[in-house]
Amino acid sequence: MNEKHRKMYARLHTVAKLSEARLRADPIPHLDRAAKRIYELEKAIEEALILLSGAVTYDIAREIAPRMDPSLVETITVRNTRAYECLRKVWR
């Protein structure tokens, strides 16, 4: 590690320590922001689960089926089902 990297590391370490000190001194604003972000992510997952549910996927596939090759529609449906299962596991 050369001198430039040592200075960068020292600066980053100092910033990290200051950030940690601010967090410990007043955690409420940080917790509020984290809670708000968690809520937003939960809503996004919930919406994704609804959009990827079988009925919606089937409706979308049925709408685009006349314009698309049936195997492509089937592939899209399978991928949506996998995404749905993945999100459902995380959501539990």
Main sheet summary: none
The share of residues in extended strands comes to: under 5%
Radius of gyration, rounded? 23 Å
Shape: elongated
Low-pLDDT runs of 5+ residues are none
What order do the SSEs take from the amino end to the carboxyl end, as H and E?
HHHH
The amount of helix comes to over 70%
Structural class: mainly alpha
Number of strands: 0
Termini separation (Å)? 45 Å
pLDDT averaged over residues: 81
Count of DSSP-assigned helices: 4
Protein architecture, described:
The protein has a domain at 28-91. The protein has helices spanning 3-25, 27-52, 54-64, 70-91. The protein has 92 residues and is an all-alpha fold. α2 (27-52) runs antiparallel to α4 and α3 (54-64) packs antiparallel against α4. The model has no long low-confidence stretch (mean pLDDT 81).
Tell me the layout of helices and strands:
Layout: H1 3-25, H2 27-52, H3 54-64, H4 70-91
Helix pairs in contact: 2-4, 3-4
Brief sketch in words of this structure:
With 92 residues, the protein is an all-alpha fold. It has a domain at 28-91. It has helices spanning 3-25, 27-52, 54-64, 70-91.
Descriptive tags:
mainly alpha; 92 residues
